[in-house]
Amino acid sequence: MFGIGMPEMIVILAVALIVIGPRKLPDLARSLGKAMREFKNATNELKTAVNLDTDIKDIRHTLDDVKTSVKNAAEDYIDKAPAVGVPALEAQKKAETAEKKEQPPAPETEQSVDGLAAGEKTGND
Fold first, then answer.
1. What is the C-alpha to C-alpha distance for residues 32 and 88, in angstroms, rounded to an integer?
2. Residue 16: CB partners within 8 Å, gap ≥ 6?
3. Rounded to whole angstroms, what are the CA distances from 87 to 74, 80, 83, 93?
4. Chain-centre distance for alpha carbon 101
5. H-type helices in the chain, by residue range?
6. Per DSSP, what are the bridge partners of residue 117?
7. What is the pLDDT of residue 56?
8. pTM to 2 decimals?
9. 50 vs 58: CA distance, rounded Å
10. Predicted local distance difference test score (pLDDT) of residue 36
11. How far apart are CA 121 and CA 110, in angstroms?
């Protein structure tokens, strides 16, 4: 572990036992274990975030590819069928204007003296 062999670990533990003392050594080991666990959790969260970022980049590339293919297909359609599209649009506009002319104007509502339309009630009723 970390390039430290067994003899070095024994020397480090002996120095820690002398400097820290036998009573505080279990508390120190417990705190060190908690710190290592939190470090591992933070590392896993970071890995998850990086994987999500990679997934989002893949989705963006896919959407860009779809956008490009749809744009190319639309351009091909417009280039291949200009004679069909223009008369169809003109016929649609003529039909829309004819519908507007045929529709009768909306009937006006009768208003009472108070300014309310017939059939409306006030909050006092």
1. 77
2. 25, 28
3. 18, 15, 7, 10
4. 47
5. 6-20, 25-80, 82-102
6. 111
7. 92
8. 0.41
9. 12
10. 95
11. 14
Closest CA to 107 of 115, 98, 118, 96: 118
Nearest CA-CA partner of 10 in 93, 18, 100 = 18
Q: What is the CA angle 81-82-83, rounded to 5?
A: 95
6 residue type, one letter: M
Which structure tokens are listed for 55? 């997934």
- How confident is the prediction along the chain (125 residues), in pLDDT tens digits per residue? 578 889 998 998 899 889 988 888 889 889 999 999 999 999 999 999 999 999 999 999 999 999 999 999 888 887 777 655 566 677 778 888 887 777 666 666 555 555 555 455 555 55
End-to-end CA distance of the chain: 87
